[in-house]
Write a structure and sequence with these properties.
Shape: elongated
Strand content: 15-25%
Order of helices and strands: HEEHEEEEEH
CATH architecture of the largest domain: 2-Layer Sandwich
Largest sheet: 7 strands, antiparallel
Oligomer: single chain
Length: about 180
């Protein structure tokens, strides 16, 4: 009878060990995934420039457009996921470069004297016919060392960005 009790204890111990490993693994995965599930926070947009088409024709957004861009960013803080592979079908149809500090007359520095790149982020936009269904996709690139994020938008969510792009006639990206 003692041999039977010892056998049950070993089975019970094995089940407890397996459950413990499973629970600890699940907690570990959630702890790593949780930061990517939280909404992004965007800094206050001070100025923004849009570069469109393969020639990267650029213009500075008007104050009204900049205000609308800030509202659009504030309404689109969720659903951004990390980019695992930075391989894209093209360089995008447009790039929106956003500055969140006023720049001094010396190009490349903001009023605090820090490098301009510390206070900017870019939105790389796909709006053409792209391989891998990249239409209405935006990649958010922040500073050095920050994770790159990607989001695919619905027609409704993408409407404001399309409005910014449609003011220009440019050749949209095609299959590579």
């Amino acid at each position: 009878m003692n041999a039977r009790k010892a056998f049950i204890r070993k089975e019970t111990l094995a089940v407890i060990i397996i459950l413990t490993i499973a629970i600890v693994s699940a907690i570990g995965v959630w702890m790593m995934a949780l930061p990517t599930l939280q909404p992004l926070s965007f800094p206050q947009v001070v100025t923004a420039e849009i570069q469109i088409g393969p020639e990267r024709t650029s213009r500075v957004l008007s104050p009204e457009e900049t205000e609308h861009l800030q509202e659009w960013l504030n309404h689109n803080t969720q659903g951004w996921r990390p980019v695992v592979h930075k391989e894209t079908p093209s360089s995008g149809d447009a790039i929106i470069v956003v500055n969140n500090h006023h720049l001094s007359p010396q190009k490349g520095q903001n009023i605090s004297g820090k490098d301009e790149d510390e206070h900017r982020f870019s939105l790389r936009v796909w709006d053409g016919i792209n391989m891998g269904d990249w239409n209405r996709t935006i990649i958010l690139e922040r500073g050095e060392g920050e994770p790159v994020k990607k989001k695919k938008f619905s027609q409704k969510e993408f409407a404001f960005i399309r409005l910014l792009l449609d003011g220009y006639h440019y050749k949209r990206s095609l299959y590579p």
